[in-house]
Amino acid sequence: MDQAKEEHAIILDFLPNGYPFDPRPSHRKTPVAQSIGTSRFILRELIPRKDVHLNPDEEVYIGEGKRDKINHIQGRMEFSTLTSTAESQLEFVLRELVKRNEAKFIEFFNKAQPLSTRMHQLELLPGVGKKHMWEVINTRDEEPFKDFADLRARVKLMPDPEKLIVRRIISELSGEEKHLVFVGR
User: Fold this and answer.
1) Of the residues 11, 28, 45, 60, which has the maximum number of CB atoms within 10 A of its CB?
2) Measured at the alpha carbon of residue 170, what is the angle toward residues 164 and 172, in degrees to the nearest 5?
3) Which among 98, 97, 94, 89 is positioned nearest to 33, based on CA atoms?
């Protein structure tokens, strides 16, 4: 969606003694935090400042300026390297981010375009087939959707749009998808 750099991330898991499978001696290990960006949903490994303890679900600044709690960004992470705590936390964090940025996702439903003559962006959402796609398109042509409640009320038998978006983001993060709609590259 937007290609700006991410300014904030939400902590999924904090390992104060580093990774347990790290072969280095314990005095050489550094604390590590696994996080997800709030706007482009990029998984990152963060190194906190000395003597800073981070909590899961905590939002931290990772932008260009002075960072209070984060020393540096170690790099991007693969979905497969998430700890079990981070993986279980991911769905709750994503659901909260989708609720917080509802306008951005409603804009997706209002402006989604065909990808090819046979495929539409709306069909990329799990649980949305041709019938739901055409119903969403015909309904949005009458009047654009205002929010998720409006979408649910006007499109009959539509699965919960928040859950659809969260499931799509998770499948994009895990590398299962060819087309990336919500996750940054």
Assistant:
1) 11
2) 100
3) 89
What pLDDT was estimated at residue 157?
85
Q: With a threshold of 0.85, does the pTM exceed it?
A: yes
Q: Which domains does the chain have, with CATH numbers?
A: 8-86 (2.40.50.140), 101-173 (1.10.150.280)
Whether the Cβ atoms of residue 86 and residue 34 lie closer than 8 Å to each other: yes
Express each pLDDT in 45-96 by its tens digit: 999 999 899 999 999 999 888 888 999 999 999 999 999 999 999 999 999 9
